[in-house]
Amino acid sequence: MASYTSPLAESLAEDLLQRFDRYVRIDTQAARERTGCPSTPGQLVLAALLAAELLEIGLADAAVDDNGYVTATLSASGGGDPRTVIGLISHMDTSPDAPGAGVVPIVHRDYGGGVIELPREGTVLDPSTEPHLGSRAGHDIVTSSGDTLLGADDKAGVAEIMTAVAHLQAHPELARPTIRICFTPDEEIGEGATLFDVAAFGARCAYTIDGSSLGEIQDETFSALGATITVTGVEVHPGLATGILVNAARVAAEIVAALPADLTPETTSGRDGFIHVYEIAGEAGSARIRAILRDFDDELLAGHASLLRSVAEEVVARTPGSSLTVDVVEQYPNMRAHLEPFPEVVEHAIQAIRSEGLEPLREPIRGGTDGSQLSAKGLPTPNIFTGGHAYHSVREWASLQDMAAAAAVIVRLSAAWAASGQPGATASI
Ligand SMILES: [Zn+2]
Q: Which residues are in the CB-under-5-Å shell of ion ligand 1?
């Protein structure tokens, strides 16, 4: 079929679709408040299934650890150097931002390029408002039934790794390095890398398969801070309040209103950062503002934090009787600085994407991935596309042809690393 990027991608598509369909039906939605890892038991159900399937493929060390991390090793073969160890990582959980239980995927074969009406909740995918959908005419588009996430974020990545690994295991004649696999829990709540054992993983680098558009290779993420501002006022019965009441809720509202309107996620794009107030809660006596701060540049990010602090302090200073605490915590760092010393990691990914006949897209991620923290922990981990779109919404969709391209890129990435380990050799894939 013409819409596949290569015969390899086409040969992987059927296995990929079956795996994807199996995985998305399992409810692995993460929960923001967690008391253990993983945050929800459904993630362990998928973890057990993946470990069993990896064993079935022939990866004898496949296992799930106490925190729900699935790991396995695909041994080097075809003359590839076993001492070259690379990693492949995807996350099993899905976002808490839209319903995640009861996913019933629908495959819209040979999509005509128009509006896709889903059977539930009147959900519609409109190519005039869904970037990339209109250009996917002739593809097989996978959606939910309209009332849930699809879960392509990141079960597309999981299915692509599984499919590529099954293909490589079935083709020992293809030169490959040692490949370590890890499927992580709780990425969507920022905890995917927390209990990831980098030393035990033992790879020189890894790739998260957790991007979106065809051809993406991402080696730059936001640097991220979280801020909590607590305002304390003076509470009193409103009938006796004259000259006494200091209303913390009003002070909190003033602080938010005084923040620059052009420094928000909805008014910025590209390389610009922002301050995003995502919660205001409070009463007259005490109020809390929670915000996330993002930028690609650490100095600019620190500037956003001091701006937030100074705005809050000014408002409180002109409101006698009110007081303030500001807590700022680091959430994740921009991975770029941790990847720059190892240019071959991104170069091999670019080579693999080109071998699949695609033009590499190197857009910075306006967000973070497991790779942000893993790169900072000493495992350089850029991010590769999955072919999924409209993440964290009931309009989430994925192109089977683009997902197959991602699986093929993983196969070619393995070849690129095997070739680089051979003295004087160049990768021919
Ligand atoms: Zn993801």
A: 153-154, 210
